[in-house]
Amino acid sequence: MPKVIFLPHEELCPEGAVVEAKEGETLLDVALANGISVEHACEKSCACVTCHMIVREGFDSLEESDELEDDMLDKAWGLEQESRLGCQACINKEDLVVEIPKYTVNLASEQH
Fold it and tell me: Rounded to whole angstroms, how far apart are CA atoms 46 and 94?
């Protein structure tokens, strides 16, 4: 099983986390299943950027983003070349190292 290493995030996972994932799961689902409460205001429908993540290692193992995701990502705070929406990035066989940005464009937390 691939591992996802979530780098420390001041509020969501201060110690960071190393978790196992199943192929085909999204980064967002893996985070949520492991107690990392990443924002997802659109309920995983690729209609916002609150689940923006940066894949620091293993980015090339992910399927390419589609046009809709790319258009949404243009609105993300702190966009980088390795940015993906957690609700759209499906895990393959490789381990990943993921950073959850400190800030989101969401002005109020949904607290799912």
Answer: 24
